[in-house]
């Protein structure tokens, strides 16, 4: 399938396929985009696509605040300054102040120059309206259903129009799962709940942020669930003896045949592992304690879990 060539699903709903899929809904006065892609180069292709169908941009609806999903905003808004931007709470702060992304990935320290790249640091964008994390919102005469799909990001949402679910990064296409091996997330427990919600949903079509559109999502959603549960098991096994986060990451990458060769990959994988730790703690499968000036993690039961000794 050609990258960034508009594919219509219904008369009103379609998408621009690419490494990051960008949704499109025809509104009363123009096109509503769901996310905007990584950068200006991507955004220029989207503008060309909108020009070809004689649709001005009326709105951009953000599913979450990762650079590859809002990096095209600045260029598109320079072309259509009247277009309105919608984003979920908290996610909108990162869109307006994108330095927050490399900041939180770098443990709150001033980001190294190596982390100031387009994959982690998009150009800033205004946000005009907060989305509900659950409910309905009318944009340019179109009623969109907003569904809460946290896990990959804190307040990630999906958007549903005419039974078509733009599912953001709540699940990945199977090729993407195989490629990354340790999927990025901030809370594995919430990720699994979001996957179950989608699996039980009545929608007739599903478009992930990364992967092909499908009307039969059971296989890919199940593959995502199995991936996360498999990683749970591997991590739990590695924590049979207490380890730090960094020690666990090194062993996990060796097990998964991941080779980290730059700071960007390291902070993404480290954050993902912490997201699995968070999920395992929520499910009371692992715990932590402090000893010898180290934050140690291990399978339960631990002596004095969560206490310094």
UniProtKB/TrEMBL annotation:
Catalytic activity: 3',5'-cyclic UMP + H2O = UMP + H(+); 3',5'-cyclic CMP + H2O = CMP + H(+)
Protein keywords: Hydrolase
GO molecular function, one term: hydrolase activity
UniProt keyword annotation of Manganese present: no
SMART domains reported in the protein's UniProt record: Lactamase_B
UniProt domain Metallo-beta-lactamase: residue ranges: 19-210
Superkingdom to which the source organism belongs: Bacteria
Keyword RNA-binding attributed: no
Role according to the record: Counteracts the endogenous Pycsar antiviral defense system. Phosphodiesterase that enables metal-dependent hydrolysis of host cyclic nucleotide Pycsar defense signals such as cCMP and cUMP.
Annotated protein name in UniProt: MBL fold metallo-hydrolase
Species annotation: Brevibacillus composti
Lineage: Bacteria, Bacillati, Bacillota, Bacilli, Bacillales
